[in-house]
Amino acid sequence: MSEQPGKVDAKLGANVFKLDQEPHIVIDTETCRTVCTRRVCLQVCPADLYETNDQGDMTVNWEGCLECGTCLICCDEKALRWEYPRGGFGVQYRMS
Amino acid sequence: MEKVECIVVGGGLAGLVAAYGLAREGVEVMVLERGNYAGAKNVTGGRLYMRPLRRIYPELWDDMPFERPVARELITMLGDGAATTVELASERLSGPSPQSYTIQRAKLDQWLADKATAAGAMVVTDMKADELLRDGERVIGVRAGGDEVGAEVTIIAEGVLGLLSGGAGLREQPRAADHAVGFKEIIELPPGVIEDRWRLNEGEGAAQLFMGDVTRGMTGGGFLYTNRASIALGVVVSMEQMRTRSDELESWELLDAFKEAAQIKPLVRGGELAEYSAHAVFEGGIDKLPRSYGAGYLLAGEAAGFALNALVTVRGMDLAIASGWAAARAALAARAAGDSSAAALAVYERFLRETFVMRAMEAGRGVPRAIENRRLFSEYPGAVARLLEGFFAVDDESSATLVRTSLRGARREFLKIDTLKDLWSLRKV
Predict the structure, then answer these.
(1) Which of A62, B241, B272, B414 pairs as cysteine with A25 (C-beta 3.0–4.6 A)?
(2) B contact residues 160-219, partner A, Cβ 8 Å cutoff
(3) Which domains are assigned to chain A?
């Protein structure tokens, strides 16, 4: 978790997101718990979406995803089922 | 199964130029774009180099929506609490035929989608291609939104992650060692403020690249492009170096620290954040390119690895456009021959070589190795500043002449074996 929670949230708040019901990123938390030692997802995500919950499991706030795929590329353990959101959903960039 | 002559996966620059090139020759072509509009998922640093494009559909570019022609180029080295900037303002940068424009993808891509539509292409938005349909080795179409659509040729311009083509085994899955991640803020500022801050004539723009402290010694840098009424301020950093750090630094913190740096703060003062975006960037170079064609399909744009970071010039969009053009020509040749086998579509490679795409990738062959060198991003920016500080220093015991000061400084900072080796490796950049 970041030192200053909410700092990236404020940035994400400037974006237009079309939210789907279903997450487009699903974490295999079992793999994270039993195999992964580094948890690089916590560090690499530019939107700071990954967190460890009270039970020590990885969670992802997929609603704010910028769809860059950095977590997918960087995850050594292939613990992410990562797809683009369904057509019409997810971030809709206007000025980037 | 419904069938069209060509399917294009992805309404970005590569896909839309391909669709335009096919539609204007009367080919039935359908573009599948998963965003609400073309450009909705697309992120650029900020600039499109124009000169390479003049020979690609020359009629196309006259009314292209741009933000500003770049009339001022700046490279700033940040290190040791100092900033050293090299600046070029030249009539030959802008003038009647500007070398580059700052652009925004939502505008540029929608404009290009309109061109493709006007030429006869069908651009379907809100539609994600979920899977490539195969018949043995051959790609025979896509599954999208629960429907299957067949095509003689499928042009896969799906972007850098290559989820469809990678999933089908047509290319490798992306590796952290070959990629950087870029993320940027769009910060709104009044046009007059932008022109004052970067000393621009009305309507002109600036591009500023930053090396050094921005990435804490990691390969990468900062960038700043001036749009008409906003600036794009961002950071690009090596994924591999980011994810193997021993500390707990998070990528996004690099941009926040960059924005707060004493040398950058006055540039963004008073600006309002309007958007935050991120994008993976392929930096593997020509040696890591996937095979760009096969039976029934072509890869174009970033999906084919066409991106080039040569430190002071960062290219992707011009290569995407040229590869889209080459893909259209290859699909047309296959259509004329009535043959879309891998052997027939191999002509794509020849068309790519005829454009500047492969020449540019070839010229950049040594770049991935050269920019792995962390001294470029850690030691040198500070060393340059210390050398210049010697020029400007006045103290009570200084009796050295300018020439002696600079010689002594240069010897101390730069006359080392490593530096000479680094200079040699950079000749390729």
Answers:
(1) A62
(2) 160-161, 163, 174-176, 179, 181, 183-186
(3) 7-13+26-85 (3.30.70.20)
